[in-house]
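User: Quick one: structure for sequence A, then sequence B.

Assistant: Sequence A:
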Amino acid sequence: MGAPKAVVLLSGGLDSTTVLAMARAAGFECFALSFRYGQRHGVELAAAGRVAAAFGAQHAIVDIDLTMFGGSALTDARIAVPHHGDGAVLAAASEIPVTYVPARNTIFLSFALAWAETLGAGDIFIGVSAIDYSGYPDCRPEYIAAYERMANLATKAAVTGEREISIHTPLVSLSKAETIARGLALGVDYGMTHSCYDPDPAGVPCGTCDSCLLRRRGFSELGVPDPLTTRQRA
């Protein structure tokens, strides 16, 4: 009997890359799933391809168009990505930011659930965190628990008793620094990842959006350099 199969949602960012490394280390045969959904740039998809290849995961990219709904700075060019002053430290989010993409994780998990069924997989991994995050409602543990319950009511495999669906969130209670530490222990090269919401045309991170600041804070708290930044400055 071969290794159990798992679908891993992979954006090419720091968190999802760590989750892929963790799933592989746990003995899963990993199938990485990314989305071209009308986001502001394709840099993250290039990063996702590098990451999937590095970990030997089969990689699929799904094309969906969330720009038709808009409502987010990541899918609507008319809405600016928030930037913060140089050296700013991102505080805990008090309201849901404009970079929230309506129902994105619900949509992504639905595709992952469908692929898991066809693969005969009972495990889905997603890199959500309830500690260092931007205040997105679809990153909370109660949301994931509710989705998992739904998945086990809505799939043939679960209803027939063939297999239950488990949604794994190994980063949900980890800070960004703790996440990076886990990845480094597993040999992750964070230089191949991408986190920025608003990179320049060459793909260089802005350094001042929420995602860049969270990444910077994580490496700073851990006391190690970010290899992506180091390579850009070299």
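Sequence B:
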Amino acid sequence: MKIAVLVFAFPPKWLAGTELATYDIAKRLVSKGHEVHILTSLDKGLPKESIEEGFYLHRIRFSRINLLGAVIFWLPMLSKLRKINPDLVHAQGIGMATPALMAKVFFNIPYSIWCQGSDVYLPWNFKRPLSKLVFRHADAVAAFSENMKKEIQKISDRAIYVFPSGVDLQLFENLTREKARSNLQINKDQKILTFVGTLRPVKGVKYLIQAMDILIKQKTDIRLILVGDGPDRKALQRMTEDLKLGNYITFIGKVSHEKVPEFMVASDIFVLPSLSEGFGSVNLEAFAAGLPIVATKVGGLPEIIKEGENGLLVESKNPKQLAEIILLLLDNPELRNKFSENNKLKVKNYTWDNVVDVLEKMFIDITNKHQLQ
């Protein structure tokens, strides 16, 4: 099968959940014998055309001029799809589904959409009319969670596939806490809280920093490590300085995807204080590292983080409650160990091989039905 995957951004510059997931999906589809073409935006210094891990990569210039910029981006993407002539177009997110719809209208190519979270939960220009349009004509729509499915069906009352994102367990092989802490120069006795993600408002990191201000008044042997970069970084660093938390919070910045497991394995608790989250793929990496999780009760998070089983949930925007729950876990090693063991077992359900098997079946169903039309 020849598959074209549309995603707005892609590694090596962009390393958030959707970009990394698309990379993993492409590799595994190639290993299953499919011809895969990734169509994405062009980053400075990178070639417009290349082959990586067996898949074809097509980068198209994007101009940030609101709707006009999007149209200028979509038209050459549509032209590229005509040349590739795939059996199926798959859009990673609602925003990338417009050129997929255009390819169906003009070239009779079926398409699917896998909603990514922020495209469903957060507001954006023309969200409702565009979503209704691309959902109506899509041959398949997928969501990460039942919660996301319900949100989609508020816009379009149609059948929705539900399956999660995945994790590459090979990245965690041969990693031990002792080795990871030694490599990262972390004191073996210090309690480490870790956040991994893009530093933007929806991730709620400012509330985690405020929680640290509460925590250090009761425990001084803790440290918060923030792995990732983003538009909020300078403001969060100023907040850290204003609260005099410089000795307790470390901003690591952007790291390679292969380096993230080392930070996870070196930690004691993973914290995700998001204000909105479709699924939180980073939680799967925490599972693989055997970390207990403290997260907010938003989006699809309660579907994968079961209260008292593999983590604890708190209200969003509530630093006091966040601090109390983190302290509860820090003071209860038996509970942390229970969550850790449960997450090591739970992660086996979320391997990329399993996820891509389901995705491939969806693609085959679409193309088979399209051939019968």
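Residues 280 and 301 are 7 Å apart (CA to CA). The domain at 2-166+351-372 is CATH 3.40.50.2000 (Rossmann fold).

User: Thanks, that's what I needed.
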